[in-house]
Amino acid sequence: MGSPGAVIETKPEGGSLFAPPPSLERDAKRREDDELVARTRRGDMEAFEALYRRHSPAVFGLALRMLQNRADAEDILQEIFIQAHDRLPSFEGRSAFGTWLYRLSVNRCLDHLRSRGAKEQSRTEPLTPELPGRVTTAGTRGLELERAIGELPPSSRAAFLLHHVAGFDHKEVGEMMGIAVGTSKSLVHRARTRLKEILTR
Amino acid sequence: MKNTIFTTILASLLVASGASAQQEERFNRTLDVGPDAALSIGNIAGDIHVEGGTGASIVIDAVKRVDDGDEELLKSVDIEVSQLGNRVRISTEHTGTGRRHKNGDGNVSVSYHVTVPKGTEVEIQSVSGSVVLAGVEGAANAQSVSGDVRVADVAELVQAKSVSGDVEVRRARSSRHADIESVSGEVRVEDIEAGELTVSSVSGDVLLLGVSSKRASLESVSGDLEYTGSIAASGRYEFQSHSGDVVLTLGDEVGFELEFSTFSGEIESDFTLKSTSREHKGKRLSAVVGDGSAFIEASTFSGDVQLKRR
Amino acid sequence: MTDEHPDIERLNDYLDGDLAPREHREIESHLRQCGDCRRSLDELSAIVRAASELPPVAPPERIWESVAASLIERKSFARTSGSWWRSALYPALAAAAAILLGASLWLAMRGEERPTPTDQAALAEMVTKELEAAETHYDKAIVGLEQIIAQNEGVLPAELASVLNQNLDLIENAIGESRAAIATEPQSTAAQESLLQALRSKVTLLQNTILLINEVRKGQGENALDLIDEMRKTTDPSNPI
After folding, report:
1. Is there a domain that residue B148 lies in?
2. pLDDT tens digits, residue range C73-89?
3. Which side of chain C, N or C, has fewer Cβ within a 10 Å radius?
4. What is chain B's mean pLDDT, rounded?
5. Nearest to A117 among C31, C56, C189 (CB)
């Protein structure tokens, strides 16, 4: 935590304050993904498995936090990768594979949340996601935050997770969710405000 | 007479003279109570009107009436008032010929007009009379079976219910969950602020105007649901109907996330909706309006969903 | 002026570094003096920091096995990658594929793809099972409540009973319409939700009927068999489904 009155001085070029800025590391990862996608298209199962290994932890984390239910998240993870494979022919490589995959994932999760009947969800306590027992570096704060995220409505939850956990900027979040940049920013701000209310009540 | 641990006071009577088609008896009583008083009234036929006021007494003004001049019938109805400390209970007992008619003898009624200190907790139960409760700050609970229920200017609304009567609530607050319901009557709520709010009717319409609750839930099976007014940022509003329409009339001040779904109804909106879901089965619309701060969910089976701009 | 407290939206903008330099400086200077606003900002900042540290979560290995099995079953992979086909995993995966296919396809159906005839059967079966479970739960509760009401016939005055019955019929219609809709469109979540909601309404009305019966019986001085307890045994009124 910064000292009282700490001034936030710099804003890294090209990224928002708390999202990782573009970097050499990111570019290298992207090139590797592109190679794996190309091989998968030619029928290489091992290449697809490598893509799975690289990206499934992030997608699973998103699914757990979006759906707040481990069994559902597991089912949807499976479905997402099967669908990703099916749709690979139409992936043009204009965006990074990771971004494309996230877009597919968040929309799958949103569809699932909505088709499950938001009604039943709203009537029950949000389930604590069964996240791994290990305590995050954020400690108990992280666990409280996980629970609080479960109380956000679907779109705010998605925008918040995409921006602050996955690290996409508002333009990218907007493209993934089919909303304007300004809307993404609003949803994220709204999520932060709501989380603050939940965590300090 | 039933045994009670309270002092049972029988009505003191002012008998109307002469033989008239309608016979009346007045009943008056004043009871001293402290600031944290509680009043409970049970009645079968006849209106009940309870109002908060200044002062430290509960003042009861009741009128017994029979339509066909049946004096015996008049006498068979007892107004029982009991008091234990600050708690007062008024009940109307139809003793009949030893039988107790809780369903009303048709031709006899008692109407009550009671003034209470404004901090009093009030609970009213009526069968066929209407109920009016106004100006109290204690927990307010008003119910009737076939009569209308009107509640206004209360600070702690718990319940306002009727089975076949209409229910109207105006200018109410509740720190917890306020429950406003009818089965076949219309339910109308204006200007309410509650921690949580449930407003429902099975076949009557449900109207909410100007709510500042953070959570509100409106339900009906065949009645329409109407919401007109502003919503609170970070609020959560749920509308559920089977065949009734859901009509929301909102302003621009607060943005919201929307979840609309209907099986065979139509969805219309004055607002430009930025759709955030592309599901095409049935009719489903998820969208964000403005900054998406509140959350609105509306589901019907065959009713239409309309979103209008104020 | 810097003495005015910025609202939460301004603080959010400040945190993101989105304010014009002058406004940023003004708020910064306010924060130096105002403990409350500083705390609010710190809370927002802590949330963002904690969020950025939320870790990815390694999924169980069997999920990869399921994915692979499904893809094999769909004959998605050309046999070009020699080593993979020779792996010991392949036979097990192929066997698992048949079982898993139903589940994964069902989930895929929740999306936008048009189901093929066999898929539709799998989907219909899964949806029906879930719905049936919920319906059974409600139906049991309803039977219990109706029994209590039947045992107390004639207690409620005719007019009241009539209103309650009319509304019960209304709800019954809603249930019928929803069921018909599900029969024609088993995948429609709107139809499913309508059915569950209508069943819920029926339970509530039956419970309220029993409460009224109880009131009447108490009033009649009958040794009130407390119907409330009986009712609780059939359903838990404080915890609707």
Report:
1. yes
2. 766 554 434 344 333 34
3. N
4. 84
5. C189
- If we measure between CA atoms, which residue out of B286, B186, B289, C212 comes closest to residue A113? B286
Residue B107 counted as domain residue: yes
C contacts of B147 (beta carbons < 8 Å): none
CA distances for B230 relative to A152, B118, B239, B255, C121, angstroms: 21, 29, 15, 10, 46
Ordered DSSP codes for chain C? -TTSPPPHHHHHHHHHT-S-HHHHHHHHHHHHH-HHHHHHHHHHHHHHHHHHTPPP-PPPHHHHHHHHHHHHHTT-S-TT-HHHHHSTHHHHHHHHHHHHHHHHHHHHHTTTPPPPHHHHHHHHHHHHHHHHHHHHHHHHHHHHHHHHHHHTTT-S-HHHHHHHHHHHHHHHHHHHHHHHHHHH-TT-HHHHHHHHHHHHHHHHHHHHHHHHHHHHHHHTT-----HHHHHHHH--TTS--
* Tokens standing for residue B84: 């234990």
Dist. CA C222–CA C202, nearest whole Å:
27
Mutate to test the interface with A, among C36, C40, C47, C112 (most CBs of A within 10 A): C47
ipTM: 0.81
Residue B277 confidence (pLDDT): 53
Alpha-carbon distance of B102 to B67, in angstroms, equals 18
Domain at A24-199: CATH code: 1.10.1740.10
Give domain status of residue B52, yes or no. yes
Count of the separate structural domains present in chain B: 1
Does residue B222 or residue A93 have the better pLDDT?
B222
pTM of the model: 0.63
Closest CA to B259 of B267, B206, B211, B251: B267
- Look at B261 and C167 and tell me if their CB atoms are within 8 Å: no
Estimate to the nearest angstrom the gap between the alpha carbon of B68 and the chain centroid.
Answer: 32
